[in-house]
Amino acid sequence: MLYLIGLGLPIVFLLLFFLGPLGWMVLMSLSSQTAGQAPTLVFTLGNFVRLLGDPFYLKNTVWLTLKLAFTSTALALMMGYPIAYFASQLPSRWRGVLITLAVVPLWVNVVVRTFGWAVVLMDSGLLNRALMRLGLVDRPVRLMFTETGVLIGLTQIAIPYIVVPLIGVLTAIDPALQEAAQSVGANRWRTFWKVTFPLSIPGVAAGTLIVFSLNASAFAIPAMMGGERVRMMGLMAFQQAAILGNFPYAAAIGVSLFLLSISTILAYTGILARAFGGGR
């Protein structure tokens, strides 16, 4: 009896707080709404056609979201992998210190961290003042309210999610495998690419999937660092629902983002499985 209760509670929680809202959002996306009136369920695909059938929205919202999510994930992996690899080579005591330092940014709210980036990247911010004093530029470099600024924010937020799972996987790799590769003539670089990196693929997959999912649906960073110029899908859905009151269109954006994320994740895991055999 206790076993059934323990199993049933998570299922009920999932139904109520995930599948329930998701189903409501799907029905809302198939609705129609007249200004000043409540949405009416008419099972129309017009909201999806408006989003995915318009070249303007495809380029400036859908493609922009995927591009920033992909790029920030790749940059976070490029920066986070060396940190995780270095930490995995340290004694356990110092490894714990480095893990703590990597996780510390997660202790600060994303809004507070984004305000910090705004102070650094604004036209009169620390970065531009340093560049001008060094004579590297003669006018401020525009970073705030640009795709570059949003990309910087998304990448910085993502690095801890790459480092933490990778450290665990890299630490678990048997050093004897690397020693065996070097004993038959492989140098350290070849040993890394032929032994260490393929065995770390589960950590790479876990970290990059988390980062892509988080950044594709990002709201705070595009809103604060991109403004009206960088309209990712999460921000656009908020604007449609909270500002314009167009709930069916906002729901269609949310459903489209969900389906795009799921499709990308399935394709990505399939590519990794074929290329690295699931990291085994």
Low-confidence stretches: none
Distance between the first and last residues' Cα: 39 Å
CATH architecture: Orthogonal Bundle
Mean pLDDT: 89
Task: Report the principal-axis shape.
Answer: globular
Q: Provide a count of the helices.
A: 13
What order do the strands of the largest sheet run in, or round the barrel if closed? 1-2
Structural class, by secondary structure, is mainly alpha
CATH superfamily: MetI-like
Please state the CA-atom Rg, rounded to the nearest Å: 23 Å
The topology string of helices and strands comes to: HEEHHHHHHHHHHHH
Largest sheet features: 2 strands, antiparallel
Approximate helicity band: over 70%
Quickly count the domains: 1
Q: How much beta, percentage-wise?
A: under 5%
CATH class: Mainly Alpha
The number of distinct β-strands equals 2
Structure characteristics:
MetI-like fold; 2 strands; 280 residues; mainly alpha; two-stranded antiparallel sheet; 76% helix
Write a brief structural summary.
With 280 residues, the chain is an all-alpha fold.
Structure, explained:
The chain is mostly helical and 280 residues long. It has a single domain, classed as MetI-like (MetI-like fold), CATH 1.10.3720. Helices cover 76% and strands 1% of the residues. It has 13 helices and two strands; from the N terminus they run αββαααααααααααα. Strands 1-2 form a two-stranded antiparallel ribbon. A hairpin with a 7-residue loop joins β1 and β2. α3 runs parallel beside α7, α10 (201-216) runs antiparallel to α13 and α12 runs antiparallel to α13. It is globular. The two termini are 39 Å apart.
